[in-house]
Amino acid sequence: MSYKTQLLCRKCSLFFVLLLVLQVGHAQNQFSKVDEWIKDNLKDLGGRAVLVIYKDGKLVYDHAENDLTPMQQFVGKRIARKQGRDADELLQDFGSNTKIMIASCSKWLSAALVMTFVDEGKLNLEDTVGKYLPMLTANGKGQIKIWQCLSHLTGIKTPPLKEGIQEISKAGTMEDTIEKIAANEMEGEPGKTFHYSNAGLQIAAAVIEKISGKDFKTLFRERIAEPCDMPNTDFGNGNVPLAAGGARSTATDYLHFLTMILNNGTYNGKQILSADAVAAMQVNRVTTNCSIAYTPAEAAGWGYGFGEWVLPLCNPLAKQTWSCTEEGVRSSFASSPGLFGSFPWVDNDKHYAGFLLTFCFKSKGRSERYRSLKNLVDEALQ
Question: Taking the complete model, does pTM exceed 0.90, yes or no?
Answer without folding.
Answer: no
